[in-house]
Amino acid sequence: MRRLLLAVALLAPYAFYVLMIATLIAIIVAAAFNVLGAEWAAAAAAGPPILAALFASLQSQEVQGEPEDLARKLAQELVSRVLEDWTAEMPARGLDPDHRIGLRWRLAEGSNPSAQRGAGLVDSGTLDQLIDAVGRQAGSGGLARLVVTGVMGGGKSAACALLTVELAGRHGRLPVFLHLATWDPATSMQTWIAGQLSDVFPIIGKSKYARKVAAILANRHILPILDGLDEMRGPSAALRAIDEEMSGRPFVLTCRTAEFQEANAGSVLHQVLIVDLQRLRAEEVRDILLEYEPASVQGPLSTYVAALEADPTGPVADALDTPLMVSLAREAGAYVPDLGAVAAGSDGADVIRQHLLGTFVRKAYANEDQITRDQARRYLRFLAKHTDGAARIAWWMLYETVPQAVFLVVAVVNAVVICAGLGALFFALFKNPWLGFWIGLGAGVAGAVIDTVVPHQAPRRARPRFRSLRVPAPNELSRILVFGVRGDAAASVIVWALYGPARYIAIGGVLSAVTYATASYIGQPNDPLKVVTPRSLLSGDRMTVMYAWLLAALAGALTGGYLGPYFRTGHRPRFDSLALLHFSSPGLTLLGAACGCVLSGAGLGLMEISSSSWGRFIFTRLWLASRGSAPLRLMSFLDDACKRGILRQINGYYEFRHQILQRYLDDPDPELATGAPGALTSPAAPS
Asked: How confident is the model at residue 427, as a pLDDT?
């Protein structure tokens, strides 16, 4: 019985919407056969959409289920997905067991002894030992409040990635990477985390009910990995807020060593385990390089090995004291020809770092025919300057680099060329092309202004199958209604210009409103459980536009085919002399269907393209390519940069391999800034 009631509750919303659609169709048919008067038909036709909107807004949460139940279910599903994604990411980050650089850590000042005992740790050890201890603690039902410090490039992100795989594998809490640079301490941390969850996992949604689910996830089911305290303004105040709001709750926090010591002066954080990742020693770096390239090879790394052996505390040892720089030395294949000249510089270690970064980027595009090194460097510098608050590259947000006025001008031009042109051609059938021109121009310009000022939609995916339908959230409902009103207005004006009886205006307007609203409804935010690459986000959004375009063309053909035969008896007197009045009913049906298909498809197609991420990205690529800021085939360039090790993919985003690399590329001329570029020209390999 309980299952039956639950099934009824789940099916009730769909049954209601089917009833509203059937009612609307019945009203249209009754108006067409003069069963209902024009005024009654117009009034009745407005009822089902209004009732559907009210029902969607007021639907009880009991139908959706208890927020706690959904939060628990989502956490279980997302844990397995996070584990799968991060496990696949390990080789790209050089964190697979065969290539991982071993790191050491030691307890830092301010660590709580009870937290140390709870994790079963001694005062120092290897990173693998730390990960295993935290994992065992999670497996026994406990989670530590862990702070990981170290120098930039010292392995903090690698430690968090390994912790994520370990904790997700033990099915403790759901580990979630959160970039503290996007948090304003004036906002409650729990509120911020809940909001971030809706962005990281769009499946949660943005409705009031979804916010409750996100809040429960944030409070009970996730392990927040708070990355980059040192990137915040006022880290001391942020640290105090974290201590107050996360009291008694587990978390992982990363920060550069010096910045954390300053922010935590006086032991601001309580009950935490603080580990500081140690710099690589000269002998450790030497062994890593020799394992990668044996001394007998006498390759580029031999110069680094020789320098490390000759001066274990010199600039080469200082430059290669982090996993990132050692990895770059292995991959760049650059010689250091004049170590004495480098050491004599104001900061020899920094010169070597800059040289390794530059050589790595140049080598990545050394044998490329389609793009020069200078072009690649210029494109990467542009991307480095236009990441989001979490240092990610989102292709759907690159439109913000284009002036808003440019989009408005393009939209108006489209309105003049396409909307006004089609309107003129259509009304030329009725010997009045200028009327069609002005109607099309007005509709196009109004739509262009609306699409320019209204925030654009995030990447979506189409859901044309009935089983994938769901009740729209209030913010989605408002957009759906706007689309419906625009469709109603456009169709009503055209039908009003051609037909005398009001019932035809009501029928055409209502059918168009339903079509446009349905086209908007079939697109929903992408689900990271199913769409996890930038390209799949792009193709999903493009497919949503195509579905809407097809739906509009089909519905327009049906509406035009229905209204076509009635033009003979329902037209305005000014069209009494038209030759097409002598067409047969099938001929008028076909003509009406063809015109409705073209006008509806073009109108809704323009609306969908201009408001979609895909549509804006098309023009963004053209704009950036014309200015030399990015290649025309931008997505191919981004994917290729991932293969070359410059970028990496994290679900639907790209990001630079490391923040150090991003900062290097963001510098207008980093090699000249070192003050000693000439000393770093790699000579020919020794024979």
From this structure: 83
Instruction: Report d(CA 181, CA 207) in Å as an integer.
Output: 25
Distance of alpha carbon 260 from alpha carbon 146, whole angstroms: 13
Q: How far is the CA of 183 from the CAs of 186, 191, 232, 242, 564, in angstroms?
A: 9, 10, 8, 11, 58
Pairing of strands 653-656, 647-650: antiparallel
Q: In this prediction, what percent of the chain has a pLDDT beyond 70?
A: 79
CA contacts within 13 A on the Cβ side of 408 = 9
Which residues does 662 contact at the CB level (< 8 Å), separation at least 6?
A: 384, 387, 391, 656
Residue 680 confidence (pLDDT): 38
Q: Give the number of other CB atoms < 10 A from CB of residue 465.
A: 8
pLDDT attached to residue 256: 92
Dist. CA 263–CA 266, nearest whole Å: 9
DSSP letter for 393, please: E
Q: How far apart are the first and last CA of the chain?
A: 85
Q: Report the predicted TM-score, pTM, of the whole model to 2 decimal places.
A: 0.72
Low-confidence residues of the chain, pLDDT below 50? 60-63, 337, 339, 342-345, 465-468, 527-531, 671-687
pLDDT value of position 675: 36
Residue type at 411? A
Give dist(CA 190, CA 251) in Å, integer. Answer: 12
Give the pLDDT confidence of 124-154 residue by residue, as tens digits.
899 888 888 888 877 776 777 899 999 988 9
Are 395 and 634 in contact by the 8 Å Cβ rule? The answer is yes
For 579, other C-beta atoms within 10 Å of its C-beta total 8
Q: What is the 3-state secondary structure (H, E, C) of 416-431?
A: HHHHHHHHHHHHHCCC
DSSP letter, residue 562? H
Report the alpha-carbon distance of residue 75 to residue 54 in Å, rounded. 31
In three-state secondary structure terms, 444 is helix
- DSSP three-state, residue 497: helix
Q: Can you give the pLDDT at residue 454?
A: 64
Strand locations in 94-138 (E):
104-107, 124-126
Round to whole Å and give the CA distance between 652 and 540.
Answer: 12
653-656 and 174-179 as β-strands: parallel, antiparallel, unpaired? unpaired
DSSP state of 499: B
List Cβ<8 Å contacts ≥24 apart for 362-366: 363/331, 363/332, 363/333, 363/334, 364/641, 364/644, 364/645, 364/646, 365/644
